[in-house]
Amino acid sequence: MRSKSWGRPVQPVRTTTAATRPSDPTAFVSAVSMVRTARRSTFRTVMAVVRQVRQGLAWKVASAHQASTRGAPASPLSGNATFCSSGPRCFHPALWRPPLLSSHYFPGYRRASTDAPATLRCSLLPPPVDLKYVRDQLPEVERNIAQRGVTANAARVAALYDRFCELKADTDAVRQERNEVAAKMKNVKELPQAERERCIARGKHLKDALARMEAELVAVEEEMHTEAGKIPNRTHPDVPTGGEERARLLRMAGEKRRFDGFAPKSHLELALELDLVNFEAAARVSGARFYYLRNAGAMLELALVNWAMQRLVLEHGFTPMLTPDLVREEMVAGCGFQPRGEASQTYLVPDGALCLVGTAEIPLGGYYAGQILSEEQLPIRLAGFSHCFRREVGAAGTETRGLYRVHQFSKVEMFAITTPEQSEVMHEELRRIEESLFDALGLCYRVLDMPVEDLGNPAYRKYDIEAWMPGRGAFGEISSASNCTDYQARRLAIRYRDAQHGQVRHVHTLNATACATPRLLISILENYQQCDGSVLVPPVLRPYLGGLEKIARPRASEGVAARSA
Fold it and tell me: Please, is 379 exposed, middle or buried when counting C-beta atoms within 10 Å of its C-beta (0-12, 13-18, 19+)?
């Protein structure tokens, strides 16, 4: 229990009983009011501390539940904030919530320090990369960083890792000696006076030394993890070097449509003429690059989603998932995305440590965070539907017109978890599934092996699929498939137990787009347009639209969709 002034403990308020209740009713009411006020103050104090700890501002926990009967002084938590450890039930272990990315979310990891709760906690975070590999293969890691064109300091990470290992060994040695002294102090009354004083002095010295060393250990570990998080994944040896222009063509499917007797319109013209979309209303409601899909446009998106999910689940054995649109910030970082900063594409919810997802890959990966799977469970195939939210920082030009680059859209995502030996085979399988979907839609597309500068930090290798969009007069990306190997698994602490040897290893994760609805709507509208301004519905989607074969111009007396005779 404490007053409103942080760090100044107050004496606990004793509750009244029949024996101690004052005869004056006014005094009794005053006493009850004091008790209630004290309880509210205690609750506010506890919740304030919980909020601080959850935000990662505190690295120590007060052992108030042990000190409540001793009148121990307040224990420091962070900055100028302290937690009162006197008074009854000021703090209970059940109220403790560990900092983000701790073993609370990743139970497979344990804290290195098991000292009293008031000591600093170390090893809260799973390492974002293989730190030993970074140190031992430093030239290779630096070459990969340079080829990808990212900003990361592998040499600093290697130096911090060496320092961390040294500090960890020294800390463990001091802790062991302190425990030996503590064991000897159990029989302190039997020791000679000189030996007793020496043990007491030595114990105090070791306690202070351990506190200093653990503080430095935490600081080194935090910086090491921050710097290591900037290091990209390794790169497949067959990935082309250079920028986007160096992408390698793997396959060209279908033929570009020829338009006889009329010039093809853009999807924006078609969508407005057919009353499929409304950008003006969305701009008033939400701002630029938002849109309303309406009439046959809304039904066409739902048909695409239902068709894609059904194909994945019934034909390819995926598990269907409807995922949250809001996730914790550490889940975004765990998947290798940047939740903060000027270059971030992520929308942050103020004061909530939550983010709007940019892809279902994030909640699907987070679904298994901190788990140790059995090898028999692998591979895992998930098909997740989500709304996707992206800031699209830096995007400008003609690509921002219409549906090509928007802030919110719907998407069906494939996500796979495999053993390291299965991941490259799974990568090819995901690519073949994507191709089968776009073949069924009758699109002309090309498959590209993307160069190293276009991979992004998580990807070991990435395939992009681009569809021909006549209105744009160019190919446009409609899908990608990435093998992230163990990059995300290390950050999310997803592991599996080897069936043969029982060894615990990190899994590999992969992701691929099955259906990004805005880009597919563009491809369908522009490739299936007719000379009269109508748009044919791809045959595979007609059963999901009640047999609708053609989307025609709206008439005053009819709806916007005309069913062919």
Answer: middle
Q: Is residue 159 packed enough to be buried (19+ CB in 10 Å), middle (13-18) or exposed (0-12)?
A: middle
Asked whether the beta carbons of 298 and 291 are under 8 A apart, the reply is no
CATH superfamily of domain region 244-551: Bira Bifunctional Protein; Domain 2 (3.30.930.10)
Give the CATH number of domain 120-232; options: 3.40.50.360, 3.40.50.1370, 1.10.287.40, 2.60.40.10. Answer: 1.10.287.40
Residue with tokens 């853009």: 266
Instruction: Encode pLDDT of 508-553 as tens digits.
Output: 999 999 999 999 999 999 999 999 999 999 999 999 999 999 999 8
| HEC-encoded secondary structure of 328-344 | EHHHHHHCCCCCCCCCC
CA 459 – CA 217 distance, rounded (Å): 31
Give the contacts of 38 (CB within 8 A, at least 6 positions apart). Answer: 1, 12, 13
Peptide bond into 232 cis (omega under 30): no
For residue 434, give the 3-state DSSP assignment.
helix
Distance of CA 109 to the CA centre of its chain: 18
**Cβ-proximal residues to 458 (8 Å cutoff; 6+ apart), any chain:** 232, 233, 335, 336, 337, 482, 484, 487, 488
Helix (H) or strand (E) holding 253: strand 248-253
User: How many angstroms separate the CA atoms of 533 and 271, rounded?
Assistant: 10
Please state at what angle helix 154-185 crosses helix 138-148, rounded to 10 degrees.
130
Mean pLDDT of 45-69: 42
Residue 123 φ then ψ, to 5°: 55, 45
pTM: 0.74
CA distance 433 to 424: 14
Q: Residue 470 burial (CB < 10 Å; 0-12/13-18/19+)? A: buried
pLDDT at 499: 87
- Write out the catalytic residue numbers: 390, 405, 477, 480, 519
Which ranges in the chain are annotated with CATH 3.30.930.10? 244-551
Residue where the block lists tokens 């009850």: 32
